[in-house]
Design brief:
Elements lengths: L2 H12 L9 E9 L4 E5 L12 H11 L5 E10 L12 H10 L6 E5 L5 E5 H4 L6 H5 L6
Parallel strand pairs: 3-4
Antiparallel strand pairs: 1-2, 1-3, 4-5
Length: about 140
């Protein structure tokens, strides 16, 4: 699948974000290794901590459908009602969720301002010393 297509899916997901408190809407499109796309948007809550990021929404939808193998995610975000002015990287909690399900060297994270303006990173680049299954197996040594 083309990166541009995945970004367009993330942009579509962003349109349904529920962000009445921050005014910052985010959309994500998660690509499974089998080629299926799961969209996610951020969903805020007046109590703040029950809010959920777009990336985790997409992952939780996919995992709840039985998916476990992922290839890439596209993320777009910015002031609600306006085109993204900058790249919107995933927060630390979302990176940790990605680390649970994705190969840090193979999983691609596309940050985009538009279908044409995007940057691509591996999960390892954005989470260089991630805590995951291997950390537990090694007794806490992430190297």
């Amino acid at each position: 699948m083309e990166e541009k297509t995945l970004v367009l899916e993330a942009m579509a997901a962003r349109k349904v974000a529920y962000a009445p408190y921050s005014g910052f809407s985010v959309g994500a499109a998660l690509l499974t290794k089998s080629g299926k796309i799961y969209r996610g948007c951020n969903i805020e809550n007046a109590a703040f901590t029950p809010s959920n990021c777009a990336e985790r929404t997409a992952f939780f939808k996919a995992v709840s459908d039985g998916e476990r193998c992922f290839a890439a995610i596209a993320i777009v975000g910015g002031k609600a009602g306006e085109p993204p002015a900058d790249f919107c990287p995933p927060c630390g909690v979302c990176r940790q969720v990605m680390a649970e399900f994705c190969d840090p060297d193979e999983f691609r994270i596309l940050l985009a301002r538009s279908p044409e303006v995007r940057k691509c990173f591996s999960l390892r680049e954005l989470l260089p010393l991630g805590f995951g299954k291997d950390t537990l197996k090694k007794g806490g040594d992430a190297r």
